[in-house]
Amino acid sequence: MRRREFITLLGGTATAWPIIAGAQKSPTRLGFLSAGSAGSRTTAAQIADIHRGLKDNGMIEGRDYILETRFAAGHYDRFPALANELAQAGVSVVLVNTISAVRAAQALTPPISIVMLSINDPVGTGLVASLARPGGHTTGMATLNEDVTAKILEFQRMLVPKGKVIAVLFNPVNPTNPPMVDDLTRGSKAMGMKVVPFVLRSPEDLDSVLATVAGAQVDTIHLVADSGNLDLGDRIADFSIEHRLPFFTTSPRVVEFGALLAYGASLGKLFVRSGYFIKRILDGANPGDLPVEQPTQIELWINLKTAGAIGVEIPLQLQQLAERLIE
């Protein structure tokens, strides 16, 4: 090759390098600040739903984004430190699934965009200014659990007509839980039933709480919606089947793990929907201008296998109304 041709080729190659380098964009870092444990079945399903939602919006893991995960494992006092870890990792968006996690993420300085995955009453708890105009740097999905909790009592009376005493498991650290217990208490009294509340603050408390439930004269179990406690849904379901106690909740996914019946929004669908918000934010939208969405459908799920195991008959009419039957 002649010297002049070599110099010309070299010059052309050098000119192309910046273009090639500029085309290689690093994946965006996203953070999931979870109330649950790293190894739980619920967490695995939630992470899969997040990835699915991002894929539905044209984002590929490894190419377009990396998901950083941090787990409080039911210990909500860990959220501030975990949120700081995500900030130090350089995440552009924090995904959160309980109220304490939202507040920890909102306290970060400088602010980081926040997408709520499934939050009870975000306006009433002061997380956003309104659903239509959330303000600040927070948006995402609400659950409507506070509106459907009392409906569970009607299903209990239908399926367990002789059941009078309900063991209600709740987390007082979640500010929406005590009001929902109050709603259940008032509703059960009007129906001639009684609520016995059991405080469940962390996974370490579960065995002792369930032992107390086993020794009490209760007829059914109700799990109030809290992300940390829903992470324990499979263990509570196993207990309910062993002790032949019909288990009700507002989280349909727990029915997959053995709960008898759930009536509420599909958290899986809400988690998938997060991909829409993340993509909008990464494309330049201000989170505070994106309206917080509420579920468009409340679903009834029933586990027929559990019903058979504990001796509860599910009327055909109710089966026909269910969005999903687990057999």
What does this structure look like?
By secondary structure, this protein is α/β, with parallel strands linked by helices. It has 2 domains: 28-143 and 267-289, Rossmann fold (3-Layer(aba) Sandwich); 146-264 and 299-326, Response regulator (Rossmann fold). It contains 14 helices and 12 strands. The chain has helices at residues 3-23, 41-56, 79-88, 99-106, 145-148, 151-159, 177-190, 206-215, 227-230, 233-242, 253-256, 267-282, 304-310, 316-321; strands spanning 28-34, 65-71, 93-96, 113-119, 138-142, 165-170, 194-199, 220-223, 247-249, 261-264, 299-303, 324-326. The strands form 2 sheets. Strands 7-6-8-9-10-11-12 form a 7-stranded mixed β-sheet, with helices on both faces. The protein has a 5-stranded parallel β-sheet with strand order 2-1-3-4-5, sandwiched between helices. Helix 2 (41-56) crosses helix 12 and helix 3 (79-88) packs across helix 4 (99-106). The longest helix has 21 residues, at 3-23.
Task: For the structure shown, list the relevant keywords.
327 residues, alpha/beta, Rossmann fold, 7-stranded mixed β-sheet, 5-stranded parallel β-sheet, 14 helices, 43% helix, disordered N terminus
